[in-house]
Amino acid sequence: MKYTELPNKTALVIHGGNNQIIVDSRDLAKEFGRDHKNVLQTLDDLLADGTISRLESKPSDYYKRGKEYRCYELNKAGFLKAMPFMGGRKSREGQRRLVDAFLEQESKLERQSKEREKFAYQIARLSGKDSRAILTEVIQKFIVYATRQSSGSADRYYCIITKLAYQALISSQPKASSIRELLTAIQLSHLSTIELTAAQALDDGMQSGVAYKVIYQRLKSILNGFSGFKTALLEG
């Protein structure tokens, strides 16, 4: 749990697991100019009559001068429902400050989320290029391998295997050159796994001296096993 002090001095708490913003009942007391015990009584009443649900609040404890005291942590829904019942000598100011703090913190978390998503996408793109380069190199070796075994159309394997790899991931395909630009970070990660698996299957077959046609059929079977990765490609 991480405490974040906002510029307006309203302290909010961010839970690490899902970055949920919460407000502590002690902060409600401070912002509304009320004794904490009175805020607790109000929250007890709101919980008892169902105005605030158990999913919108969480009982907690804190220590002060060696003694244990109780408090509540409220998520956004619980906090917004509780505010009209808080009263206190700073009611309007408390509501304004807390709402502003929530909105500011939500905006900050949204920006951070977008930055993380963008970074993850860039990493996945770089990783995808690496896996693509590896598969391309192995396919080129496989073309030579098949040609030596009297294949009359071995040069077609580059396009054929590339298409197989994409088909293991997506159901409908635009031009191969633009597929990567349309994939999400997760899809790119899955594609990287598929391409590396394909490269390994081709390399293992060649190392074992298996006939190129058998290697290709094994590859098709392996890639068909990635049906769990199958997803729609979102265009535009």
Can you give keywords for this protein?
single chain, 236 residues, alpha+beta, Ribosomal Protein S8, Chain: A, domain 1, 5-stranded antiparallel β-sheet, 5 strands, rod-shaped, disordered N terminus
What report would you give on this structure?
Strands 1-2-3-5-4 form a five-stranded antiparallel beta sheet. It folds into two domains: 2-89, 2-Layer Sandwich (Ribosomal Protein S8, Chain: A, domain 1); 122-229, no CATH class. The protein has helices at residues 25-32, 36-48, 76-82, 91-148, 157-167, 176-182, 185-207, 212-224, and strands at 2-5, 11-14, 21-24, 57-64, 67-74. It is rod-shaped, with a radius of gyration of 29 Å. By secondary structure, it is α+β, with helices and mostly antiparallel strands.
Secondary-structure map:
Blueprint: E1 2-5, E2 11-14, E3 21-24, H1 25-32, H2 36-48, E4 57-64, E5 67-74, H3 76-82, H4 91-148, H5 157-167, H6 176-182, H7 185-207, H8 212-224
Antiparallel strand pairs: 1-2, 2-3, 3-5, 4-5
Helix pairs in contact: 1-2, 1-4, 4-7, 7-8
